[in-house]
Amino acid sequence: MKSNVLSRYRVMAYITAVWLLVFTAAIIAKYGFETGDTMLISQIHGVLFIVYVVFAFDLGTKAKWPFGKLLWVLAAGCIPFASFFVEPKISREARPLIADASPATAKA
Q1: Which of 67, 58, 77, 78 is nearest to 8 (CA)?
Q2: Which of 12, 55, 82, 85 maximizes the CB count within 10 A of its CB?
Q3: What is the pTM of this model?
């Protein structure tokens, strides 16, 4: 597995997590304090979440995760703060797969 597969997942995990927090705050402001509109924030988060799903699925396919683990990682993108805890765990698990896939050096 190439390292950019993990890097793309990590970047999108954090971006999606931050936008989910922004969206949650906007929902609280809208319905709790009757201020603001959430349309633009929800659309941005929706697009970012789709990209996150694609990258997480790509990582899961290349890491040969079972379907349950893939669903767990995808669900972390839907729960505020969850990605901040799931992403480091997934990165620790995926790093050895990158090291194993590195090309062997030619011996003379």
Answers
A1: 58
A2: 12
A3: 0.82
